[in-house]
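Put briefly, the fold is written as integer tokens. One such record reads:
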Amino acid sequence: MTRSNIALLVLLAVVASLPLFGGAYALRLGTMACMYAILALSWNVVGGFAGYPSFATAAFFGFGAYTTGVLLGKGLPLWLGVVIAAVAALLMSAVLGAALLRLRGHYFAIASLSLVEVLRELVNNATDLTGGGMGLNIPLVSGSGVLAEAMFFFYAMWILLLLTALMVMAVAGSKLGFGLACIRQNETASSMVGLNTTLYKSIAFGLSACFVSAAGGVYAAWVHYIDPSDVFDILYSVKPIVMALMGGLGSPLGVACGAFLYLGLEEVVWRNYIQFHSGVLGLIIVLLLLFLPHGLISLRPANLWRKAKHV
């Protein structure tokens, strides 16, 4: 295991201790931080490792939220609903990926973005099952108190984050990760030497969708009410890309740090500049990307030492 992966696991252990130092607000913030990190790490499998600019994150997040919400309404336990949503997203994305991933560059980006709108319209029209535009009320998972419920969902999202991080680290050190890196460098040459690029990309796309969908399922149970405009929000496709760029594209540790940094900036800006928070947050992000083009991971001592030797 690399030092970067060990540092990531230590970071997640620190996040797990958050309830010891705060109340309900800290738990809410921690749950959102874990969810953002799941989305960013999952996107990194396709966007960072393979170099494909996917905007389908919101589609699978909403799919997982609605699948889990409907199953909870039928009386299934949360864990089973999340597992079913994740497996369904894995299968659906593998099939869709076999078609969409034949496209490249901005063509693939547009196709993946259209997937969000397609699923949103399907949910809007399936009123008997999903409630359509009126949204879907989701039953309480347990009858415990507010603080106990907040603690439960924090650790549910944290466990999912841990599983996502382990998946990303396993992919990075495997034959799949090597194949995705070859695709990122030169897909045509990879195909010519016998690499099944469509299969590799479909597996990566499926793994990404699987964990994003699971996060959507936990989110739906956490907030108790969802509607298409919420869970299919295009920002769920844009934010993971920004987080990955802020942290360091392709680096699991950097991407997780980017997710936590983004949430911190979002929270601070929202509280202090509520009238024009989007503009201020956008300006800060642009400045960070300009002055740290390789993300937070470029601030590691080894990278700084390497730069100093070239000065």
In short: The longest helix spans residues 146-172. Strands lie at 136-137, 225-226. The CA atoms of residues 29 and 286 lie 24 Å apart.
